[in-house]
C-alpha cells in the first residue's frame, strides 16, 4: 500500500513539474526532465518486481528444504526397534555377537542423526551405512538369508543425497526375508560411473503375504526424488514369479 501511495505522489509531482517547466522553462530542459522522470518510475517498478521474485524464490527454496528435512525425519524407525529387540535377545543369551551389534547400530544411528541431515554425502559413506545395515540383518537372521552385495564404483567420492537407497533395502528384508521360512535371498547391485548412480535390489518373497500398496517410506522416497531430481531419476519395481526387483537410477550431483 505504501508503495502505491509513493508511486501516486511521484506521478502527481511529475505532471506538476512538467507543467511548470513547459510554462516557465525551456524545451530542452523539459525533455531531459521528462526522460528522467519517466525512467525513474519504470526502474522502480522493475526493482520492486525483481525484489518480489527473489523473495518468492527464497521462500520456495526454504519451503523445499523444510519439506526435505521432514521427509528424511520420517524414515521408518521400525528397523531400529527390531534391532534393539534382537540385541536384547542376544544380551540375554550372553552372545558374543551383542557387542558387534551395538557397534554397528551405533554407527548407523550416528550416520542417520548427523550425516542424514546434510544435503549431500559421499557415496562411500552411504555404502558403509548400507553394509552396516546388511551385517546387522545377517546377525538377526543367523545366516538364514543369502545376501549378496555387488559394487561397480568408478568414483566413491561422488556426492549423493543421504539415505536414498536404504528404503529399497529395508523393503527387501521386510517384505521378502521376513515372509519366508527358508530359501530367502537378497541380491544388491550398486553402480556409479561418474554420470549417474544406479541401485538395484532383487529378492524373493511370499506373494500371499506381501502388500499391494506402497508404504509411507516409498511415498516419501518418491517425493524426495521429485524434489531433488526432477526429470533426472528413474525408479521401477517389477514383481514376477515370486521375485521382486526394485531399481533406482539418479543423476550424479
From TrEMBL:
GO MF annotation list: phosphorelay sensor kinase activity
Q: Which GO terms describe its cellular component?
A: membrane
Write out the transmembrane intervals. Answer: 30-50
Among its keywords, does the record have Transmembrane?
yes
Instruction: Give the UniProt keywords, A-Z.
Output: Kinase, Membrane, Transferase, Transmembrane, Transmembrane helix
Note the Pfam families from the entry: His_kinase
- Residue ranges constituting the Signal transduction histidine kinase internal region domain according to the UniProt record: 66-144
- Matching InterPro entries, A to Z? Bact_2-comp_sensor_kinase, HATPase_C_sf, Sig_transdc_His_kin_internal
Q: What protein am I looking at?
A: Histidine kinase
Taxonomy-wise, where does this protein's organism fall, top ranks first? Answer: Bacteria, Pseudomonadati, Acidobacteriota, Holophagae, Acanthopleuribacterales
Amino acid at each position: 500500500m505504501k508503495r502505491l501511495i509513493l508511486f501516486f505522489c511521484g506521478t502527481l509531482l511529475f505532471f506538476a513539474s512538467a507543467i511548470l517547466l513547459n510554462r516557465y522553462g525551456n524545451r530542452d530542459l523539459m525533455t531531459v526532465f521528462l526522460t528522467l522522470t519517466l525512467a525513474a518510475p519504470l526502474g522502480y517498478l522493475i526493482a520492486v518486481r525483481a525484489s518480489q521474485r527473489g523473495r518468492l524464490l527464497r521462500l520456495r527454496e526454504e519451503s523445499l528444504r523444510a519439506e526435505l528435512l521432514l521427509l528424511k525425519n520420517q524414515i521408518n524407525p521400525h528397523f531400529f526397534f527390531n534391532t534393539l529387540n534382537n540385541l536384547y535377545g542376544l544380551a540375554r543369551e550372553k552372545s558374543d555377537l551383542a557387542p558387534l551389534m551395538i557397534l554397528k547400530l551405533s554407527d548407523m544411528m550416528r550416520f542417520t542423526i548427523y550425516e542424514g541431515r546434510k544435503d549431500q554425502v559421499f557415496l562411500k559413506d552411504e555404502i558403509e551405512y548400507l553394509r552396516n545395515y546388511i551385517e546387522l540383518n545377517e546377525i538377526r537372521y543367523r545366516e538364514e538369508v543369502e545376501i549378496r552385495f555387488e559394487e561397480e564404483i568408478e568414483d566413491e567420492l561422488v556426492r549423493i543425497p543421504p539415505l536414498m537407497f536404504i528404503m529399497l533395502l529395508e523393503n527387501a528384508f521386510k517384505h521378502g526375508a521376513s515372509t519366508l521360512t527358508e530359501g530367502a535371498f537378497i541380491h544388491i547391485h550398486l553402480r556409479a560411473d561418474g554420470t549417474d548412480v544406479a541401485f538395484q535390489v532383487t529378492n524373493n518373497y511370499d506373494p500371499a503375504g506381501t502388500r499391494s500398496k506402497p508404504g509411507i517410506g516409498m511415498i516419501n522416497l518418491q517425493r524426495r526424488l521429485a524434489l531433488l531430481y526432477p526429470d533426472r531419476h528413474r525408479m521401477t519395481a517389477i514383481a514376477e514369479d515370486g521375485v521382486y526387483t526394485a531399481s533406482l537410477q539418479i543423476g550424479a550431483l
